[in-house]
Amino acid sequence: MRGQQGRLALAAAAGMAWLTVSLWPFRGDAVLFARRAAAKKLMEQSVTVCRPPVQAAQTEEPEREEEPPTTEQERPSMLFHLLEAPEEEVPEETAEETPKQEPDESTEDIPPMGADADDLELTNSTDHIELELGDYLDRPVELTLEGEGPQILIMHTHGTEAYSMADGDEYAPSDHARTTDEEHNMIRVGEEIKAVLEEMGLQVIHDTSLYDYPGYNGSYGRSLKGIAAMLEQYPTIRAVLDVHRDALIGADGTEYPVTDTVDGEQVAQVMLVVGTDDGGLEHPRWQDNLTLAAHIQGRMLDIDPGLPRPVNLRSQRFNQHMTAGSLLVEVGTSGNTLQEAVAGARLFARAAGLTYLECMEKKD
Fold first, then answer.
1. CATH of the domain at 345
2. Contact 332, 245 (CB under 8 A)
3. 65: domain range?
4. Residue 276 placed within a domain
5. Is the pTM of this model over 0.70?
6. Considering its fold, how many domains does the chain have in total?
7. What number of other Cβ atoms are within 10 A of residue 319's Cβ?
């Protein structure tokens, strides 16, 4: 019995060390760089929240995903990313080829980016790829958006993902931190992103299908078919945003938020996830997606250094082979409130929108 108690004490100590190490990337106390001040003033936009800010309620038991990636089990400093890996048996789709971006005189009114290559951050979760994210900030974004017709698709492979309940934001759960209530799950967050992009003059389609309900397994296979159908129906779409929320769960079941304070308001941090061909699936243009992510992260840094989490580079493909403008967007975690997520989503959309406007096709 005494030996068993000793082993339990050692395991508890290891768990606390694991949790302590895992929390360092939150970046909520990032220092403001003076060289970004001018760019920030040009980019500042008020965050419109549909409801007043609320305080987070006590969280429930930890979320149990059906298929946690084994790579994260081998990296105790990463508690995030309870993402379902795409099913390999899904038929391959042809990646969309887009012409290279030409200079557009209309981009002259877009403020220059204040962030530089050294400011960008990357978490590399692949097994065989080595790179520096800052190198991709010097590359042009290989994405051209046409002026007529929808340009951007917002969708949700895990649309029922939700946030911590708070006063005024209660919902009927379909599972832990999940709900089919579109006013409280990822559909709501997608609507906020859509609204900002449209305010900036971009044309957006929002697919509100719940690909993870009633069954979670197979959701990436179903969302792949949905993306293919949307690209066929709207051939002018060049960018696809698959919007999720993350989960940061401690060994004791505590769900941790990721937050930043912008202009006195607490907002959810945002992480971009980029898939690759490292897992063996064909994905010839993943570096185009990574270039787009680098530019959007730079724009988020201009808004506030604490807004973006490091870009996460993954071995899985996450259906991002469908276009050269595909990204997975993690808005907050299950520990955040809906209002924090809405505020963070709008700031992300402002940064992404500036990048997309730079990709508008040249007008004669």
1. 3.40.630.40
2. yes
3. 2-357
4. yes
5. yes
6. 1
7. 26
